[in-house]
Structures are given as C-alpha cells and as structure tokens.
TrEMBL record:
One of its GO terms (biological process) is RNA modification. Keywords: Repeat. GO terms for molecular function: RNA binding. The keyword Transferase does not apply. PPR repeats lie at residues 93-127, 194-228. NCBIfam families: PPR (TIGR00756). Gene3D superfamilies: Tetratricopeptide repeat domain (1.25.40.10). It comes from Nepenthes gracilis. This is Pentatricopeptide repeat-containing protein. Pfam families: PPR.
C-alpha cells in the first residue's frame, strides 16, 4: 500500500514539475514580449515592474532576460541601470556586449559605445559582424575617421567586407566623416550592390550636399537592373529640397 502511495506521489510530483516547466516556457515568452514592448514605447514604469517580477521569480539574471532588460533601460535613457545589469552578467557572455553596445549606438551615446568597445578589446573578445555596425555608427557620428579607418582595416583582415550591413555602416561612417570618396570605394567594391548599400551611399552623397551625384548613382543602378525603393527616393527628394533644386 505504501509503495502504491509513494508511486502515486512521485507521479504527481513529476506531473506538477512538467506543468511548472510548461508554464515557465509560456511565461518566458510573455516576459520577453513584455520587455520588448516597454522598450518600444519607452515605458520605464512598466519596465521596472516586469524587472521586479523577474527578480521575485529569480529570473532576472538569466542571460536572455537580462539582455532584453539592458536594451529596455538603455532605450528609456537609464544608462546607469543598463550598465549595472551588464556588469552582473558573466563577462565572457557575448550577447551582453552586442546588446549594450548596440543600445548605446542606437540611443546616441556614441562615446560610451566606443569606450565599451575598448573594454571589449581589453577582455580579449573579438568583435563580430553584429558589433561592427554599432562601432562604425559611433565613429561616424563622432567624425572619428581615425578609429573608423582602423575598423575598416580590421574588417578587411577578418573578411567581413562582404557583409551588407557592415558595408553600409562603413559607407555611412565615411560619409559622415566627409570622406565621400572612401565611401564610394567601399560601395564600388561590393560584390552585390544591394539596396542597403545603395541607400547608404545615396544618403552619404546627400549628407555631403552632392545630390546630383546621388541621382547619377541611382540612374546607373537602375540601368544595371536594380530597383530603388521608397527610402532611396525619399532621400533623393529630401536632398534636392535642401539644395533648393525642387
């Protein structure tokens, strides 16, 4: 009889564990969506509420939650909190670097992005094609062409020059540093001249006040069989309007 009771109790415990695991899976996805919504709408109060809920449930330091929380706090302008969470995740975790560096660059904290990049270098962690566009964006906005050129050399050494987003970030960086010829060389060196690269180059020309060159580039790509999109045309129209040509 005791054996039967023990077996039943064991079966019930396993069943409860399974249910708890399923609930955790569901709530895990719900938590992630909740944090993303807080970031999208910059709802700091709601973000703090979900963070507190995660702490109570012992989940706040799990990497996938912590990474989302870092991005959310950075998006809401709470950089000290984002950095504190960053420091609480194990140092060798790669995702934390991608998230905070990207958040800094996205939110306009370009100096902080470069400082964090140097920390990453000191830790011996090699940047990848997810980190490089954020670093290049920071270089461009700070017009730090010296650092930007060093990053370009690194990109060539590590064979990232065929990555569309890395290339577009390079083009944008050179254009913002008033090195439009360098930007054009990067564009011309692209094996596949996709819309990401084209729009970056058109934006670079417009930024430099070279709207006619931007139009010539678009016309050339059309002759080659590529179709500009609404972003391309909006950038061109904006450029001609600023130049007083329209």
């Amino acid at each position: 009889m005791r054996a039967l009771v023990g077996k039943a109790a064991s079966s019930t415990a396993r069943h409860k564990t399974h249910i708890a695991y399923r609930l955790f899976q569901t709530s895990s996805e719900a938590y992630l969506r909740w944090i993303e919504n807080c970031a999208d709408y910059r709802s700091l109060l709601s973000g703090r509420a979900v963070h507190g809920n995660l702490i109570v449930n012992g989940l706040a330091r799990l990497t996938h939650f912590a990474s989302k929380l870092i991005a959310m706090y950075a998006e809401c302008g709470e950089l000290p909190v984002a950095r504190k969470l960053f420091d609480e995740i194990p140092k060798r975790n790669y995702r934390r670097w991608i998230v905070l560096l990207g958040a800094y660059a996205k939110c306009g904290f370009y100096r902080e992005a470069l400082i964090l990049f140097w920390e990453m270098q000191r830790e011996g962690i090699r940047p990848n094609n997810y980190v490089l566009p954020s670093v290049l964006k920071a270089c461009g906005h700070l017009t730090n062409h010296t650092m930007g050129k060093k990053m370009h050399c690194f990109i060539l050494r590590c064979s990232y020059e065929h990555d569309a987003f890395v290339n577009s970030a390079l083009i944008d960086m050179y254009a913002k540093c008033a090195l439009v010829d360098n930007a054009r060389r990067v564009f011309d060196g692209m094996l596949a001249k996709d819309l990401v690269g084209l729009n970056a180059m058109v934006s670079g020309y417009v930024h430099a006040g070279l709207v006619k060159e931007a139009l010539c580039l678009v016309e050339r790509t059309q002759l080659a069989g590529s179709k500009p999109n609404v972003v391309t045309w909006n950038t061109l129209v904006g450029g001609f309007s600023q130049a007083g040509i329209c």
